Amino acid sequence: MAAATPKGLARRQLLAEAAGALLMAHGHEAVRHRAVAQQAGLPLASTTYYFDSLDELLKAAVEYTCEVDAREMTDRCAALPAQTRGARDTAAALAEVFVGNGGSSNLAARYELFVLAARHPELAALIAARQGRVEEIAAQVLTKSRRHSAPEGVHKLIAFENGALLESISVDGGHRADPVGVVTDAIVDVVDVLAPALPVQAGG
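The structure corresponding to this sequence follows.
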């Protein structure tokens, strides 16, 4: 990698963001030196100057994608008011935070990350860290909804959410108008089992 000068760091970050944007919009096959340079508005030689290989560029794209996704989920969770919620309202809150308002291509990029982790072991730690952050955010949603947030239950809820969203964007080609509703319907019947309501405290 080039020397870590302020200009070099800024250019490297710009290339990482461009690679991440291509990954989210078009999948990992779109992350190529020329395409990334064009997306960033930088000379083609800059990609090989700041990244030793295409694999390193792809890793930067994955890091950027995971960071953006987790940050947006965190922001949606922070905006969620703390209040007692029934099963459907809790399911809807989880779905809102999990799905957001991203297009089908951005949502599909999440699941491409799992495939990349299987094919590129060096990316597995990044994807695992992202999953950990998603589960932490879901636990915060449950806490705000005054529900139990045991790790095992949270993990299973995320699995249900992933399955419902993946089916929606793959089988239906992303044409369903309400992916939040799809995820809500998929988990509403298991919320009380996996994240039961906390007992009401006396005087509360």
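The chain has a mean pLDDT of 88.
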